[in-house]
């Protein structure tokens, strides 16, 4: 019964954009984004080199940035709705893998994502499993209903609604994000999921590919996810068709120096 309640809560938040119109929610999201940007400014930019180089002169600054980011994430994780999203997502990941995580909270999501990449042989298999996880978060009737009620008759509205819901409902996973002036692009300041998994294959095969496929095939809209592996930011460009995989730079990136799956990861398109 708890599983159904959590799934319905997740579904209701997606359809209604729960919290998007609430001033208090917008204020909290704005504070989180603003603090993330202040941390970024003090650190002199989100440089991957600052994170992976041992003995760098900015090491104490890195520690301060890490502490301040931890405070931002703690506030995000304290939200009851975010906790529902996190538990539901982790439960569906564990169901796909056939075993529960040993960790709790966000650490469980990171553990499960790494296990997914380590267990499956190719990027295509990882993407297919991740797509099943995304689909399992919604009732079977939802994709057809969304396309009939929104995507086909109201394409522009559907794109903007998905952009707004992405900002409101995914900060627990990716950290602070904001809608850009065009109303269709979501800018993730510094993707928590990418940084904490430390793996390009997780980003590409467990997030970018399946999410783009979910939007196109399940919801009937286009979205291009554009991660930046240098500063861990990401853009969700709603209404933009993703480029062919052989032309997508995100799929041809080498493993990060901090990647724990470097020996087994299959990050690029030509290894799938």
Automatic annotation (TrEMBL):
Q: Report the GO molecular function annotations.
A: iron ion binding
- Give the coiled coil ranges: none
Domain Beta-carotene isomerase D27-like C-terminal as annotated: residue spans: 184-245
Entry-linked InterPro entries: D27-like (IPR038938), D27-like_C (IPR025114)
Matching entries from Pfam families are given as: D27-like_C
Name the domain of life this protein comes from: Eukaryota
> What PANTHER family does the record point to?
BETA-CAROTENE ISOMERASE D27 (PTHR33591:SF2)
Name recorded for this polypeptide: Beta-carotene isomerase D27-like C-terminal domain-containing protein
Q: What is the lineage of its organism?
A: Eukaryota, Rhodophyta, Bangiophyceae, Porphyridiales, Porphyridiaceae
């Amino acid at each position: 019964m708890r599983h159904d309640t959590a799934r319905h809560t997740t579904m209701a938040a997606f359809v209604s954009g729960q919290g998007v119109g609430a001033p208090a929610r917008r204020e909290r999201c704005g504070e989180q984004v603003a603090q993330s940007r202040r941390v970024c400014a003090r650190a002199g930019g989100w440089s991957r080199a600052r994170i992976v180089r041992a003995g760098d002169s900015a090491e104490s600054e890195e520690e301060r940035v890490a502490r301040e980011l931890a405070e931002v994430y703690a506030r995000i994780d304290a939200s009851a709705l975010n906790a529902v999203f996190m538990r539901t997502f982790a439960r569906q990941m564990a169901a796909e893998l056939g075993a529960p995580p040993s960790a709790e909270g966000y650490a469980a999501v990171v553990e499960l994502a790494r296990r997914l990449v380590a267990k499956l042989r190719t990027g295509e298999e990882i993407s297919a499993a991740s797509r099943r996880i995304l689909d399992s978060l919604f009732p079977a009737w939802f994709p057809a209903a969304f396309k009939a009620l929104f995507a086909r008759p109201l394409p522009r509205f559907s794109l903007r609604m998905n952009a707004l819901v992405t900002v409101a409902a995914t900060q627990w996973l990716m950290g602070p994000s904001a809608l850009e002036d065009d109303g269709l692009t979501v800018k993730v300041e510094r993707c928590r999921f990418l940084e904490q998994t430390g793996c390009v294959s997780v980003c590409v095969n467990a997030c970018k590919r399946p999410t783009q496929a979910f939007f196109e095939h399940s919801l009937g809209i286009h979205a291009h996810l554009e991660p930046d592996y240098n500063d861990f930011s990401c853009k969700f460009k709603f209404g933009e068709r993703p480029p062919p995989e052989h032309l997508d730079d995100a799929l041809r990136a080498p493993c990060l120096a901090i990647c724990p799956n470097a020996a087994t990861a299959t990050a690029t398109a030509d290894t799938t």
